[in-house]
Amino acid sequence: MRKLVPLLFVSLAALSAAGCATKKTNLGTQIAGLVDQTTNAQTEPEAFLRLESYGENGVPYLVQHLGDMRPLGDKTMTLKNIVIVDSKKTEQGMRTYSPEVVHDAMAALLSQITGKNFEFVYNGADAPTRTANRKDWQDWCVKTYPEKKAICRG
């Protein structure tokens, strides 16, 4: 019986940990984790793909990270070149940018997802240009997603 108690305890602890791992995290937390991964060259390409895959649902959370000036893990970003003609999106090859910091990459992803463009920072920019870019995105985000105003301004 004494050997059974430790085995039962270990089994219950494993089940408890597994249950915690399967709990859904909120979208903001998921996106924040992926943004962190963009600062590592090994995880950056997959992180960009996953961030883009959230589409319009992820936009306010991407805007929230425009103040992030951490350097990217790899200064190369490749996105599908999507052209909108008569309200239809079509792919036309790839486009490559050289963003320097997280802000630059988030702005490129926001443009990719929304079709909107503000200040061009996708290949790096100075601080005033990034500040203007962030303000433009935040203002647009608040107008487009008023229920997520606090996230847009985050």
Task: Compile the SSE list and pairings.
Layout: H1 4-22, H2 27-37, H3 44-53, H4 59-64, E1 77-85, E2 88-97, H5 102-114, H6 127-144, H7 149-153
Antiparallel strand pairs: 1-2
Helix pairs in contact: 2-3
Strand order of the largest sheet: 1-2
Tell how many strands the DSSP assignment holds: 2
Assembly context of the chains = single chain
Helix content: 40-55%
The outline comes out as: globular
User: What's the alpha carbon Rg, rounded to whole Å?
Assistant: 20 Å
Kindly report the average pLDDT value: 85
What is the structural class? alpha+beta
Distance between the amino and carboxyl termini? 56 Å
Beta percentage is: 5-15%
What is the makeup of the main sheet?
2 strands, antiparallel
Summarize the helix and strand pattern as letters: HHHHEEHHH
Number of helices: 7
- Give the low-pLDDT segments: 1-24
